[in-house]
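## retry 2 of 3
previous attempt timed out at serialization; input unchanged, resubmitting
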Amino acid sequence: MVDLRAGCPMQGCGVGKDGELGALWRRWTSLRRDVGLLLTHTEQKGEEWKDITTSIEESYSYLASLQAELPDPSTVSFSQKEPQEILTQVEQHQAALEQEQQALFSLGLRLEHALGFSFSQDSISPEPSRKALEKIEESIRSLKERNLLLMAAAEEEQKEREQVQKRIQDVENNLFAILPELEMSSNPGKKQELQENFFSLKSQLKHIMDSLESRYAEIPKQKKW
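## retry succeeded, writing output
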């Protein structure tokens, strides 16, 4: 600074606090600081934008994996999967979708914050990212609707199984109630009536089991009907 002032051709340029050389020096120092801050800000925005893009890609991949795990409600088969298994899976997916929706909201805020930095001189357009977030939101909404349909199908299946199990239990109870009377009865007319009731109940039970076999490809032994 001393050398610069010594070489200044202007009289008084290095004299006093408000000398022209001092003023130019302060402006240059301020400009250098501003440029440094701008470069740092630009780098931070670039990293933030990169993180947003990565988060969008990860969200796409995660939602695709959830969709692949969920069976189609219109074609779901309960031959191999129990209704309770489906309900548990739906519950887990519902919780995952709620978390993903919250993450999407945070991602939207991050995007709007990043867009606060002017893109007028940047080659990156914000529109694809906005559209990507809208597509992710639509995917979440679609998967939630699919979840509800699966839940309804599983609950309906569970209800039907409980009704069938009750019918089988009622028939079995009636059969077991008739057997002692049938063995002890000495009245031919009464015995014939009991036999007719007994075979009628056996026919009902067979009809129920035939219906189950036609509905399900396989009825594992551990299933309690």
